[in-house]
Design goal:
- By secondary structure, this protein is α/β, with parallel strands linked by helices.
- Helix content is 44%, strand content 14%.
- It contains 20 helices and 16 strands.
- The strands form 4 sheets. Strands 1-13-12-11-14-15 form a 6-stranded mixed beta sheet, sandwiched between helices. A 4-stranded parallel beta sheet has the order 4-3-5-6, sandwiched between helices. A 4-stranded parallel beta sheet has the order 8-7-9-10, with helices on both faces.
- The structure holds iron/sulfur cluster.
- The site of iron/sulfur cluster has 9 residues, from loops.
Length: 504
Amino acid sequence: MSYLHLKVPPTRDERLKPCHAYGGNMDGLIHGQKEGCLTSNGRTFAQCTGCQLLLSAVMAASIPNTVLIFHAPVGCGSCFLMFAGVTKEYQTTRGNEDSVGMIWLSTNLNEIDVITGGETKLEQAIIEAEERFHPHAIFVANTCVPAIIGDDIDNVASRLRPQINAKIIPLYCEGFRTRFVATAYDIVYHGILRFLLGDDKVDWKPQGEVERREYEERCKRTVNLLNVGSMGYVDEKELTRLLNAIGLEVNIYPCFTPPEKFVKVKDAALSVSICATHDDYFVEHLKELYGIPYVLNTIPIGTDNVRLWLLEVADFFGIREKALGVIEAEEAELREALKPLRTFFEGKTTFVSTGEIRAGAQATMLEQDLGMKVLAIRTHHYDKFGDVVFDHFKGRDDVTINVATAQPFEQANLLNRLKPDIFLGHTGSNVWAAKQGYPVLSIFGPVNSYMGYKGVFEVATRLERLLQNPEFFKTLGETTTLPFKEHWYDEDPYSYIQQTLDAA
Ligand code: SF4
């Protein structure tokens, strides 16, 4: 599928044809997605959505020793401020004690630049980034305004490369180009593949003959573990522990990894993703360019999906029996630890809202590992990669499925009908649920554990704590009102979704 000859990769809308608006059951969603009849679903009213710029920026800025330039009016990326400080902490936690956190600049385009063009300002910003910070790489994030007025950031980068030591990496993350913010991951990987990998001038392999042979032997059992920016170091440690336990070595990319280490990506025997939404573009290209196969089917959340994930990796290396030994010992220990908690969770209901892959796996974990009852799942979008992680919910009419990027009005209506005991979602959607009086648990977080066997236990204990004392949320619900009219709660929550065909 190589798109690397293109300056701008295709959007998810073009490449994967996902669905972004749906209300119904799981079978209708899977069937409609397969038939392609949900792609043009829309809404006659939409409350808000996301811009891929922010997601691109979060991913790019996680990489240390880089500068990120927003080629933009100063407003674009201003909400990026919420990441100030935390990036440094996340990098430090991962052993980068000299981290200064993210450094970002804006070309601050104004009305005059819209007439005269913004390329000169971008040139100045790149030179300033080089002179002030001496980074290994400079990401240039293109936004709507320069895209509309026709600034050519690739051209600017090419002009400056002879005089700039840093690798200049253009990122085409204009918000208007896509309805699917996950396109951001393709954009950043596209830049990394074009300008950070494949620098064959650098010989990173050990020089001595023996050391070189040892290194090459090690590579045969080394995997690229692909993390995501919202993933904590604790989860990376847990997954590394499991992969080490079956005899594999692990290198982690792309988030929080120094850019000079990226050249080693192509030495690994296998790429191991934990999220297809994040990685399919990257792993396909690694396979095509460097012949590295990949594992992409699931996310290691919940015992079933951890088992599936680990066995897929093991099968590639022909070590299934060894992996089964590890899995059975870990599952037995976990079952014992969960026993008292399962009694507590019996009969408790829940509502899950997050990205496609995490949503399916986390909801499955809540039912299978904890014995809770899932009433509803919301996912930001749906594409072919969801089918494996949603397997548990096939044939189920008792779980409502809503595909929506944000759209808090739909969520509020659903919550008001379903009244779950607890809501698990992103911080943004959690605020709305909390104001309705529901206890909320963040469904991802860079300081807490979610993945592997440790993740199952930790999520269970956090849920138990919240459910034991929901008073804060109860009071918040009693003293807060959402901005929706009362009659909205009596209407069909999906009444603003336009389904082009009845997928069910
Ligand atoms: S949609 Fe365009 S103008 Fe708005 S923040 Fe994103 S890049 Fe900037």
